[in-house]
UniProtKB/TrEMBL annotation:
The keyword Membrane applies. This is Iron complex transport system permease protein. GO terms for biological process: siderophore-iron import into cell. It comes from Vibrio hangzhouensis. Pfam families: FecCD. The keyword Aminoacyl-tRNA synthetase does not apply. The lineage of its organism: Bacteria, Pseudomonadati, Pseudomonadota, Gammaproteobacteria, Vibrionales.
């Protein structure tokens, strides 16, 4: 177990170093360290471009990983993720609405708009599930329906406002291009606030995993814990999407890989999902920047290339769910 944590940490450090060296200007470790310490010739490239992107990639990936683990813990379906229950679509719809209808809106308004969209969909899902007394599996199906509806709304906005389509498409495909220090407080304050709360929920999710009747008999307030965990997941996913757009499948992949490496205990699972999610987004962003500079691919395209086949594999594996 300790070896796996150490290996994951070392791999993240190695990819972080590669990320700082890679781009249109290939730098040496000496040049990077010199720029961080003393500024100089490569101050802008290192301190205003690559370093904030690296830190944001780690935060966005961690947020998506924790969110996915919480969603799967609540819905008790290994195929559940923030993408599938409509949170990413909600954030994407409101953000696209802002980018197309109010193209001159200030930079800080985009994360707030995306947060409003994601949280609104999360609240709607909770209300529908409570009013209709939906079981977890049907809650996931309801989220998929909401997601499909909002996706059609996004398509409509892009067709009606073709002039602003480029800006919206870059954001919708998931990218850290153009992101910097001004976005940092949104994701990291959210993580530092919601991660401890998620860890507090961890043992309760372990008990819920035993079944509703067992959890209630052991004193767990089922509806309250599920709502709290789902809202934490929604807020983390919304924060991540608000920064980097819709980077698909990280919320699905990270919890699965964490479960394979660290088991089903939610405390280890959440930390593992955060670490693996951070690593996945960092790898995707590094490849997106370094594969064919100065052209930059959206990081979300790369995560989809990996995530879509894995999702098909999971569909076949869990066809009885």
């Amino acid at each position: 177990m300790n070896t796996r944590w150490i290996t994951l940490a070392l791999l993240t450090i190695i990819i972080a170093i590669v990320s700082m060296l890679t781009g249109v200007a290939n730098l040496s470790i000496t040049q990077v360290v010199s720029a961080i310490v003393a500024g100089g010739e490569f101050d802008f490239v290192v301190n205003q471009y690559r370093l904030p992107r690296l830190i944001l990639a780690l935060g966005v990936g961690a947020g998506l990983g924790i969110s996915g683990a919480l969603v799967q813990g609540v819905i008790r379906n290994p195929l559940a993720s923030p993408d599938l229950i409509g949170v990413s679509a909600g954030a994407g719809f409101v953000a696209t609405l802002l980018l197309t209808v109010f193209p001159g809106a200030p930079v800080w308004s985009l994360p707030i708009a995306a947060m409003i969209g994601g949280v609104s969909v999360g609240l709607l899902l909770i209300v529908i599930a409570k009013q209709a007394n939906l079981p977890p599996a049907r809650m996931a199906l309801t989220g998929i329906a909401i997601s499909a509806f909002l996706a059609s709304g996004i398509d409509y906005l892009l067709v009606v406002h073709p002039i602003e389509i480029n800006t919206a498409m870059i954001w919708l495909t998931g990218s850290l291009w153009g992101r910097g220090w001004e976005q940092m407080p949104f994701i990291w304050i959210g993580l530092l606030t919601l991660l401890p709360y998620s860890m507090w929920l961890a043992w309760r999710l372990d008990i819920i995993g035993l079944g509703d009747e067992s959890a209630i008999s052991l004193g767990i307030e089922l509806d309250r814990v599920q709502a709290a965990a789902l809202m934490s997941a929604v807020m983390l996913a919304s924060l991540s999407v608000s920064i980097a757009g819709t980077i698909s499948f990280v919320g699905l992949l990270a919890p699965h890989l964490s479960r394979l490496l660290f088991g089903h205990n939610h405390k280890a699972l959440l930390i593992g999902a955060a670490s693996i999610g951070a690593l996945l987004v960092l790898i995707a962003d590094t490849i997106a920047r370094g594969i064919a500079p100065p052209i930059e691919l959206p990081a979300g395209v790369l995560t989809s290339v990996i995530g879509a086949p894995y999702f098909i594999f999971l569909l076949k594996r869990y066809k009885g769910w």
